[in-house]
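tokens incoming
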């Protein structure tokens, strides 16, 4: 299966959120071609979720899973460590009070 370039995926995802008037920002711009992508969902109540793409072998498709849910500040500390270890990493932050993120469409 051909892999979509990270930059194109991020651009499409940001456009999808923009169409729903959901604020989103690129916090870390990784490698345009193959950088891993993490999506942080800030719920505006001091808490956030962190999602990562995995591959579901059983159903032969990509799947986004929540890997962390904690205080917003603690997730930021985790992300700083990840950026230090992976300069190709993309981080997208979504501001959504109810947690709506449309990752299931991607």
């Amino acid at each position: 299966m051909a892999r979509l370039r990270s930059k194109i995926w991020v651009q499409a995802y940001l456009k999808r959120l923009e169409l729903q008037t959901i604020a989103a920002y690129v916090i870390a711009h990784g490698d345009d071609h193959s950088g891993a992508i993490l999506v942080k969902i800030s719920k505006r109540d001091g808490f956030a979720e962190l999602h990562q793409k995995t591959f579901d072998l059983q159903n032969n498709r990509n799947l986004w899973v929540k890997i962390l849910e904690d205080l917003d500040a603690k997730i930021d500390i985790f992300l700083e460590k990840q950026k230090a270890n992976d300069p190709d990493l993309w981080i997208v932050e979504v501001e959504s009070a109810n947690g709506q993120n449309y990752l299931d469409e991607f």
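note: The CA atoms of residues 75 and 104 lie 21 Å apart.
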